[in-house]
Amino acid sequence: MLFSSPFVHSVHANPTNVLDWIEEDADEEKQEEVNELEPNETDTVVEQVSSSDSLAFNIVRMIFALLLVLALIFVISKLLGRKNKLFNQVKAMENLGGINVGTNKSIQIVRIGTKLYLIGVGENVELLQEITEKELIDQLMMDNSSESQDSILSMFKPKTDGDTNRNSNTDFKKLFSKELTKLKQNREKLVAKQKEDHHE
């Protein structure tokens, strides 16, 4: 009775097993690691500063990589465009040039094989004349080949002035207008000849 008390106390003991002991050991090891890290607070501050520097460096590196990828895409698209242009020059059909004569109407010189044709393009496409003069054909082909060679050379040298392109364009326009006047004269002769045949 000495040790008795008017209040009843009950104590329940939780049975421990091996898993609980392993978990307690793991918790103690983690606590020891945390205790070891606390004295090195100055090291964590240095690591935070270096990680922020690393973040800025990573952002700069990412921007540089993005610019590099964009530049590569631009260069590849230009090279493919020029490759396609060179490939088109080898084809059997080629448009050598043309001039607009009205709304949705133009006159074009087209090469098919070794022959050149002057065609009118509007609501429909009509053959105006086959170009048979050898010197005119040679001149047109030479102008066209020099234009393509200039485009190949322009890939390797910077564009300093557009005078050469303007000169070749004006030469082509002069040659084209000369051909148009010849065509006009031929047409007038044919109309006059038809009138004479019709009157007889």
From TrEMBL:
Chief site of localization: membrane
GO BP: any one term: bacterial-type flagellum organization
Entry's localization field: Cell membrane
Keyword Transmembrane helix: yes
GO cellular component terms, A-Z: membrane
Keyword Transcription regulation tagged: no
Protein name: Flagellar protein
